[in-house]
Amino acid sequence: MSEPLISIIIPVLNGKKFLDRCFSTLEKQIYKNLQVIFVDNGSTDGSKKIIDNYCTDRDNYYIIECVTPGPGAARNKGIEFSSGEYISFLDVDDELKPDKHIVLL
User: Looking at residue 12, what DSSP letter applies?
Assistant: First the structure.
């Protein structure tokens, strides 16, 4: 039996100063069957380019755009794009414990 895919949706609006920490928390995840979806919500601080570069070399990491303002709209856009059996949310300025998804499953 294969492990279920979990989609992590991360809304981003001018989160440049938090991206290194966000990337680090994603890299530390023990559960590996993840789809990571960054949803740019109109950033003007260069966040989108940094995320795009980060996603380029990683399988199942994506950046999409949401033109409707607000984190709720960005999360909904991420849900529409996702293909995971489960959905997890992460704000760009938050951190996850490495075993979060194993514990939840």
Answer: E
For tokens 């414990």, name the residue: 97
Predicted structure pTM score: 0.95
Please write the tens of the pLDDT for every residue from 24-75.
Answer: 999 999 999 999 999 999 999 999 999 999 999 999 999 999 999 999 999 9
- Identify the three-state secondary structure at position 31: coil
CA distances, 62 to each of 19, 30, 56, 58, 103 (Å) = 14, 20, 8, 9, 25
The size of the chain, in residues, is 105
Q: Distance between CA atoms of 32 and 47, rounded to whole angstroms?
A: 24
Q: Are 23 and 56 in contact (CB under 8 A)?
A: no
CA distance 33 to 13: 26
- Can you tell me the distance from the alpha carbon of 69 to that of 66, in angstroms, rounded to the nearest whole number? 7
